[in-house]
């Protein structure tokens, strides 16, 4: 099982690790990682893996079939390390921090639009949430102003853990209809934006809203009778 260091400290950009295995496709499994693995609409991290044979560009990270290990996907043609070898992982921090800022901004968007979330996707320059909204009439400028107003508070963002049973006893914490919070290990991580939001989430977030910067709603699309896609980008 890969130790997910990003769950405890999203700002940790580097770590030593040991190669546990290579997959048949050439993926690299380590005993620990700072790379977020693709999940919940957030893409896997990229960066480099340094070992005795040089530096290997890592294009992304994904979960293995059992969801217990993270597979680091190297650029084609890379000279792979061997099981048991010690390596060093380094994130593409600029990209990761953008994704952290965007992910946290989407939490605020779900506050501005308190409707069930049916889907979502996080990108470096633009992200989106899909909402189950029975009525149209959403105003881009009004939503933009509301989200930026929350960002301007600079509220702290923190995490804490509850048990699976506690989450099941409080179903109102879950906003997403299509993506279930990561469960099965006996505990679930809650992300809290002080005074604004509390929901289960396994992604990476900034420590304070002041890090996000100004954003804007770039587009609102009708995807069904009761489905509106709201896109968010940098202002």
What does this structure look like?
Strand 12 (187-193) and strand 13 (197-200) form a beta hairpin. The protein has helices at residues 5-8, 93-112, 140-152, 164-168, and strands at residues 3-4, 14-22, 28-30, 32-33, 47-51, 54-63, 70-74, 86-91, 117-121, 126-132, 157-163, 187-193, 197-200, 215-224, 227-234. Helix content is 18%, strand content 38%. The protein has 235 residues and is of the alpha+beta class. Helix 2 (93-112) packs across helix 3 (140-152). It has two domains: 3-91, Elongation Factor Tu (Ef-tu), domain 3 (Beta Barrel), CATH 2.40.30; 96-234, 2-Layer Sandwich (Threonyl-tRNA Synthetase, Chain A, domain 2). The strands form four sheets. It has a six-stranded antiparallel beta barrel.
Shape: elongated
In the CATH scheme, the class of the largest domain would be Alpha Beta
| CA-CA gap between termini | 40 Å
- The parts where pLDDT drops under 50 for at least 5 residues are none
User: What's the architecture of the largest domain, going by CATH?
Assistant: 2-Layer Sandwich
Largest sheet, order of strands side by side?
2-3-7-6-5-8
User: Compute the gyration radius: what is it?
Assistant: 19 Å
Q: Whole-number average pLDDT?
A: 91
What's the β-strand tally? 15
Percent in helix:
10-25%
How many domains, as an integer? 2
Annotation field: number of helices: 4
According to CATH, the fold-level topology of the largest domain is Threonyl-tRNA Synthetase, Chain A, domain 2
Q: Into which percentage range does the β-strand content fall?
A: 35-45%
Question: What string, H for helix and E for strand, traces the elements in order?
Answer: EHEEEEEEEHEEHEHEEEE
Q: State the secondary-structure class.
A: alpha+beta
């Amino acid at each position: 099982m890969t130790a997910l260091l990003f769950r405890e400290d999203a700002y940790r950009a580097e770590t030593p690790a040991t190669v546990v295995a290579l997959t048949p496709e050439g993926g690299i499994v380590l005993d620990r990682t700072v790379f977020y693995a693709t999940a919940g609409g957030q893409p896997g991290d990229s960066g480099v893996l340094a070992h005795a044979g040089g530096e290997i560009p890592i294009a992304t990270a994904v979960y293995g079939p059992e969801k217990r290990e993270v597979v680091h996907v190297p650029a084609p043609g890379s000279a792979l390390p061997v099981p048991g070898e010690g390596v060093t992982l380094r994130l593409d921090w600029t990209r990761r921090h953008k994704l952290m800022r965007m992910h946290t901004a989407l939490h605020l968007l779900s506050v501005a639009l308190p409707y069930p979330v049916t889907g979502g996707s996080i990108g470096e320059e633009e992200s989106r949430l899909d909402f189950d909204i029975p009525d149209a009439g959403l105003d881009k400028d009004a939503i933009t102003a509301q989200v930026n107003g929350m960002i301007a508070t600079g509220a702290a963002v923190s995490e804490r853990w509850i048990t699976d049973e506690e989450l099941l006893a409080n179903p109102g914490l879950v906003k997403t209809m299509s993506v279930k919070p990561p469960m099965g290990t006996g505990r679930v991580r809650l992300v809290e934006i002080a005074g604004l939001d509390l929901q289960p989430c396994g992604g990476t977030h900034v420590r304070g809203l002041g890090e996000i910067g100004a954003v804007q709603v770039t587009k609102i699309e009708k995807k069904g009778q009761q489905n509106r896609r709201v896109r968010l980008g940098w202002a």
